[in-house]
Write a structure and sequence with these properties.
Number of helices: 4
Strand order of the largest sheet: 1-2
Shape: elongated
Radius of gyration: 17 Å
Helix content: 55-70%
Order of helices and strands: HHHHEE
Strand content: under 5%
Distance between the termini: 59 Å
Number of strands: 2
Length: 122
């Protein structure tokens, strides 16, 4: 039998705060990475270069990363935002190796769960 006493209620604020920190942290990482692709911020390649590398799917990837990250930060449609980010990061994992598209200027999308891979400085 599960206890629903006061100890279960006292842990809830800590769980909520932990989930908030995790959600905002991941959201900032994805929004910043998406802004590199969309606007060329943080010495990123910009939208034209991403579309040249990935083709028309580059638009979806770029917009999904940027606005998915903003959705996580703001707490707006969190499940949808998180699901879109998972699909975006895992779908091209077996097909593409993109150069000069992350903070480290080299990213290997075959390592999907790693947020940035610094294998070769440019």
């Amino acid at each position: 039998m599960m206890s629903t006493g006061p100890s279960a209620r006292h842990d809830r604020p800590a769980v909520d705060a932990s989930l908030l920190v995790a959600r905002v942290t991941v959201g900032v990482i994805f929004a910043a990475h998406g802004s590199q692709k969309l606007f060329g911020a943080f010495a990123g390649p910009g939208l034209a270069a991403i579309v040249d590398m990935l083709g028309p799917i580059g638009y979806l990837v770029t917009i999904g990363e940027f606005f998915g990250g903003l959705g996580l930060i703001a707490g707006f449609l969190c499940r949808f935002s998180a699901a879109s980010l998972i699909v975006i990061r895992s779908a091209p994992s077996s097909r593409y190796t993109v150069r000069k598209a992350s903070f480290c200027r080299t990213v290997d999308l075959n390592t999907t769960w790693s947020l940035s891979v610094c294998s070769q400085p440019s």
